[in-house]
């Protein structure tokens, strides 16, 4: 009940600020769409220089461009959630709101969870609209499967929330994390953009490290469901693509839950581990911060 | 702990450690690569605050006042000792304690500036488990009580500093807690706002039976507002008494007699109970300062004897007044000794 009450308070606060600063909200969406569309268009129509040709070949088709854009948006989503626990926490310490949140009888973990949930739902809604608009603009198609999509988004959010709690705990104690927080956010962002099921071909250490990070499997699964529509190319025993009568690659439906890379199950495992680790770390750091007297300080 | 006592601080200690890299040592003048300094913010602090009481915590900068307030609110964990609020141990039952405490720390920063006072109270009310019609009614009543009713739908960023401070007090009161902690509530405010806040604090305690712990640098605020005062210096509580007792104990018991003429030498010699007689400075020759013993019986006897002697010697007595030390003088006297 406490969580729902706090979430309602955060939702009302967020809506009031969005409504009061509607111009900022609207321009944010317009600038975001324009920037992404412009980048995709520029890369798709890049010149024939050696440096650009490889990228242009990948991006030259609408599906590749939208995959890249979706990765960008997932990266921004991760950027935002982790940002709430780093820059957001520092800002709250500076303006005195952190102390008031610490004195809420619901506890700091509940308050942050509610704040992150509300922020993420709004981010998902605006991002989904932007991806759909980009897909329409470049002639691609997004595939919407309600159950896997909602489940994947929820697991992605839980994963990032757990990781965010861990980083936030460090910020509570060490305060000015400086460029470390920026590097973490940029790292997650890059991973979200670049992650595909091709990591199965990476060396074992790199592959397992990528799977351990909170955003990799989430990005892989979301791209597979939304862009590829859960269709995999059919290959023969030698690994070559099988073509149909018209010469197009043959594909077959493979649910994300049955994908041979097991990304979905990595995602579930990550979600459990990062959530438990993150919340435990945050609680420990909160107590340590109270002992050091740095809870409301900046 | 008695039922009447809402806050009990039981011998708490708190030390903070600061880390310094390449800092010059004050004693040797040499730079050290790495050094850890310990600052004792609280040393065996112990006092109680009763229901309906305003307890003032005075001290110089860095004495440990804010640390003490934060230990009561649970924002800082004491190293030793215990803090109880309404019978609950702050560390063991922290979330329950938070329902019973309202805190104002650096008040102008607390509220969310893009929101109005009413929206702020609704938001913080929900965070403090107050909801529905009770929240709406209480929010409006509080704004009325504090004098912000007319500004309840204006964004906080457009309010004055005093109004933001008042809103911070409302936020602390939204859950109707029995204990209110105010950290320097009148700092930086004009006379009117300061007066208004002091009146509201009095009303909260006398009218509503709340217990208020207030820290302040302003001696006039402390003297005017507080029932009891604790003076903290370098983390230790050097005095903890009612305001009158504090002034009485540290007062020199000097009485000023305003006469029609200056007495001659020997005219007022050897009056029983009088410890010393001094005439005022040149140009003010008719004021006589008489120092008497502090004990009530001896003081009374000495005053009667002085008046009798003045009457016998034919002086006209215009007035008698006690030159009492101000709280500021008591405070400076105590903190400089320590």
Topology:
The complex is a heterodimer of chains A (298) and B (338).
Chain A (H helix, E strand, L loop, with lengths): L1 H19 L1 H23 L5 H10 L2 H24 L1 H8 L2 H6 L5 H30 L8 H29 L4 H16 L9 H9 L3 H11 L4 E3 L17 E3 L9 H30 L6
Antiparallel strand pairs in A: 1-2
Helix pairs in contact in A: 1-2, 1-7, 2-7, 4-5, 4-7, 4-8, 4-9, 7-8, 8-11, 8-12, 9-11, 11-12
Chain B lengths: L4 E20 L6 E20 L3 E5 L6 H9 L6 E6 L2 E2 L4 H5 L2 E5 L11 H11 L4 H15 L14 H13 L5 E5 L7 H18 L2 E6 L2 H7 L2 E6 L2 E7 H7 L4 E6 L14 E6 L7 E6 L3 H17 L4 E7 L3 H11 L1
Parallel strand pairs in B: 3-8, 3-9, 6-7, 7-8
Antiparallel strand pairs in B: 1-2, 1-4, 4-5, 9-10, 11-13, 11-14, 12-13
Give a written overview of the molecule:
The complex is a heterodimer of chains A (298) and B (338). By secondary structure, chain A is mainly α. Chain A has one domain (2-292). Chain A has helices at 2-20, 22-44, 50-59, 62-85, 87-94, 97-102, 108-137, 146-174, 179-194, 204-212, 216-226, 263-292, and strands at residues 231-233, 251-253. A two-stranded antiparallel sheet of chain A has the order 1-2. In chain A, helix 7 packs across helix 8 and helix 8 runs parallel beside helix 12. Residues 47-53 of chain A have low confidence and may be disordered. Chain B is an alpha/beta fold and 338 residues long. Chain B folds into 2 domains: 48-248, Rossmann fold (3-Layer(aba) Sandwich); 251-326, Alpha-Beta Plaits (2-Layer Sandwich), CATH 3.30.70. Chain B has helices at residues 65-73, 94-98, 117-127, 132-146, 161-173, 191-208, 219-225, 243-249, 296-312, 327-337; strands spanning 5-24, 31-50, 54-58, 80-85, 88-89, 101-105, 179-183, 211-216, 228-233, 236-242, 254-259, 274-279, 287-292, 317-323. In chain B, helix 3 (117-127) packs across helix 4 and helix 4 (132-146) packs antiparallel against helix 5. Chain B starts with a strand and ends with a helix. The mean pLDDT of chain B is 86.
